[in-house]
């Protein structure tokens, strides 16, 4: 069960236990950053290629913060949607990461991985720096139809410093009324459905529009995590965590995009989303 990773929070913000469990990783991160900060090739970089946001590089990276980060969990959400960003958020020194669900019962994801909440909707801080929503298919559609879940997203999102999602999690943001008039992305097979929520569908790996940060399908959560690190701290901090994770993807097949995948593969995947797309349209139109 993924209850804590890297520097992630424990129930009710038990910072002492968190520091005890992950001091070694933090110390390593701090030392690595001190070395990386002095490398000249870092100072001239400008951030992820398709991210429309200013990425800061400061003289003193890796300063401790006190961010409150709420990551939603719900049954049948996609595990990788959650775990990728959770690794990045967990490496924010001083931050508290809340894994939030309707109850404290373990969450079974769409691949059977069990994730453990650390706070309920009522226990989650009212004001958070980051609200994060993972995606899925049937589980996401069920969450979109659950008034309690949608109200929680709308409430925390109304005050959050950054409102974020990966994959079809953006459809949940849309159901909560948080993307109207914003550029946003989602899984390629459902991206156009964002228009039903008043959003502007955008074909990019990560899209930043004001304080909304949305990622494309599943694996884009890794990219989104590093972008948010750069926004909360600075580019060098994000680069340090990226290097620690050795995140330098070289996929074995060139089928990770509908533009490069074989037509038969694309058609098969599109067929998997037929019922989901119909359900999302009906739900968003009913809410509108």
Provide a quick synopsis of the model.
Keywords: Lyase. This protein is of the alpha/beta class and 288 residues long. It has 9 helices and 11 strands.
Describe the fold and architecture.
Helix content is 38%, strand content 13%. By secondary structure, the chain is of the alpha/beta class. Strand 3 and strand 4 form a beta hairpin. Helix 1 (15-36) packs across helix 7, helix 2 runs parallel beside helix 6 (220-232) and helix 3 (138-144) runs parallel beside helix 5 (169-175). 47% of the residues are buried. Residues 1-23 and 33-49 have low confidence and may be disordered. Keywords: Lyase. This is DJ-1/PfpI family protein. Its EC number is 4.2.1.-.
Contiguous runs where pLDDT drops below 50 for at least 5 residues = 1-23, 33-49
Radius of gyration: 18 Å
Structural class computed from helices and strand pairing:
alpha/beta
Largest sheet: 7 strands, mixed
Helix percentage? 25-40%
Protein name: DJ-1/PfpI family protein
Keywords: Lyase
Domain DJ-1/PfpI: 68-229
Pfam family, one: DJ-1_PfpI
Features:
lyase; disordered N terminus; 288 residues; globular; Class_I_gatase-like; alpha/beta; 13% strand; two-stranded antiparallel sheet
Give the secondary structure arrangement, pairings included:
Layout (H helix, E strand, L loop, with lengths): L14 H22 L31 E5 L6 H12 L5 E6 L5 E2 L5 E2 L3 E2 L9 E4 L4 H7 L2 H13 L2 E5 L2 H7 L7 E2 L15 E2 L4 E4 L2 E4 L4 H13 L2 H10 L18 H10 L1 H14 L1
Parallel strand pairs: 1-2, 1-6, 2-5, 6-7, 7-11, 8-9
Antiparallel strand pairs: 3-4, 10-11
Helix pairs in contact: 1-7, 2-6, 3-5, 6-7
């Amino acid at each position: 069960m993924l209850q804590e990773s890297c520097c992630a929070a424990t129930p009710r913000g038990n910072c002492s236990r968190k520091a005890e469990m992950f001091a070694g990783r933090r110390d390593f991160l701090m030392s690595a950053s001190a070395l990386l900060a002095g490398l000249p090739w870092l100072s001239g970089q400008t951030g992820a290629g398709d991210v429309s946001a200013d990425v800061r590089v400061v003289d003193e990276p890796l300063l401790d913060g006190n961010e409150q980060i709420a990551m939603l969990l719900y049954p049948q959400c996609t595990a990788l949607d959650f775990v990728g960003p959770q690794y990045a958020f967990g490496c924010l020194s001083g931050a508290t990461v809340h894994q939030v669900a309707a109850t404290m019962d373990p969450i079974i994801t769409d691949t059977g991985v069990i994730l453990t909440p650390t706070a309920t909707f009522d226990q989650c801080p009212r004001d958070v720096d980051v609200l994060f929503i993972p995606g899925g298919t049937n589980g996401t559609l069920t969450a979109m139809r659950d008034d309690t879940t949608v109200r929680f997203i709308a409430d925390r999102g109304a005050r959050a410093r950054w409102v974020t999602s990966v994959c079809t999690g953006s459809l949940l943001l849309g159901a909560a009324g948080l993307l109207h008039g914003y550029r946003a992305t989602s899984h390629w097979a459902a991206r156009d459905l964002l228009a039903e929520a008043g959003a502007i569908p955008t074909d990019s790996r990560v899209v930043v529009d004001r304080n909304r940060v949305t990622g494309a399908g599943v694996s884009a959560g890794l990219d989104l995590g590093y972008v948010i690190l750069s926004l909360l701290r600075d580019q060098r901090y994000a680069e340090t965590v990226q290097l620690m994770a050795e995140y330098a993807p070289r996929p074995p097949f060139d089928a990770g995009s509908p533009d490069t995948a074989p037509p038969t593969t694309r058609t098969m995947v599109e067929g998997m989303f037929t019922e989901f797309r119909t359900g999302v349209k009906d739900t968003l139109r009913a809410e509108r």
